Amino acid sequence: MIEQAYSYLFIAVCIALGIAIIATLIRSITAKTIIGRFVGVNMLTTIILIAICILALFLKESYLTDVALIYALLSCISVILLSKIYINLFKKDNGGKK
């Protein structure tokens, strides 16, 4: 009985996270500034990480937490690289001024 309740809870959380992923994706695409897009992509990866961890609990597969950790690391590195590229382009357009 309790296992079935947990199953329904996990399914409801996954559906809610799916809706949040779609809303965040729309927000990232419609953002007017590049910073808004960076924040949207960062929020999207955070929601996906939560979904992977919930699926790891639901499926009782511990390797999915390792996948989530690697995904978090790659997400962090990609945001740092994109920010660095954006800052360099901004400096180049403004002639080195802050």
Order of helices and strands: HHH
Structural class: mainly alpha
Poorly predicted regions are none
Count the beta strands: 0
What is the straight-line distance between the termini?
A: 62 Å
Largest sheet: none
- The proportion of strand residues reads under 5%
General form: elongated
Write a brief caption for the model.
By secondary structure, the protein is an all-alpha fold. It has helices at residues 2-29, 34-59, 63-93.
Q: What can you see in these coordinates?
A:
The protein is mainly alpha-helical and 98 residues long. It is 87% helix and 0% strand. It contains 3 helices and no strands. It has helices at residues 2-29, 34-59, 63-93. The protein is elongated, with a radius of gyration of 18 Å.
Which structural traits does this protein have?
98 residues; mainly alpha; 87% helix; elongated
List the helices and strands and how they pair.
Blueprint: H1 2-29, H2 34-59, H3 63-93
Helix pairs in contact: 1-2, 2-3
